[in-house]
Amino acid sequence: MRWSRYWQDGKDAIGIWLDGDLLRLDALDLPPGLDLLLADGPALAPDLYRHLRRLPGDALLNPQEFSFLPPVPGRKILCAGLNYHSHALETAMPSVDFPNLFIRFSDTLVGHGQALQIPPVSTQLDYEGELAVVIGKAAGPLAPENALDHVAGYTIFNDASVRDFQFRGSQWTLGKNFPATGGCGPALVTADELPRGAHGLFLQTEIDGVLLQDGNTADMIFDVAALVSAVSIVTPLAAGDMIVTGTPAGVGFTRQPPRFLRPGEICTVRIEGLGALINPVAPALRSRAG
After folding, report:
1. Structural domains for the chain
2. Theoretical Cys-Cys bridge with 15: which of 22, 65, 119, 188, CB 3.0 to 4.6 Å?
């Protein structure tokens, strides 16, 4: 199953993808909520598809009339840094025995088609195409062999980094939490539609059609099961929490000369089986002080 969250007429809603079309879930009598989709999406799919096919034409969503939201609100978002062998190599960072994790806040994210915004205080917004894991069932500490049982599905993430703030301290929080600097979407794809642990998927990032990242999830240092387990040991996981799994080589700040995002560009992250997350780039509006 594949679904998207969207904003239309002042309301946050869910649409189900069927035969290439996005259909309003709330057009059904007694539609399942987000928690039920996260917990039991594959089991619900046959009945949902049957009922959705019977809906009248006004259940079909027009992409010109709504805005995509991240597929889940993201109560907790934990991100893995330097989790691809190729990216660790390009940054000359030593190998580690435990995932390098940091926090990203949900209000820093925009959906598919929405603009990534360059902060007025920065000139170094850097792209990072990533796979995001969405938790489907609440969990305490999990062993790696049980971790994937708690994964609802996967989505695409652009963990864009404000590099001139990220490197001001030993922690990366400042560079990861400016408003509208991360992209997420366009859809959540349930785990049953992908290889176990989303292993071996091609991941690419383009700016205006120019390929800048070309990786594969098989290159992760800590795979999805290991990351979910590591996070669950520290903090209880709940349905809708996200774990973002790191980026492959090719990011902007390691290039010579460095290559950062510029207003007017289009940044696209593609992951095999998940589609494409597309975000234009724009300058952020300056806020008034005081």
Report:
1. 2-67 (no CATH), 70-283 (3.90.850.10)
2. 22
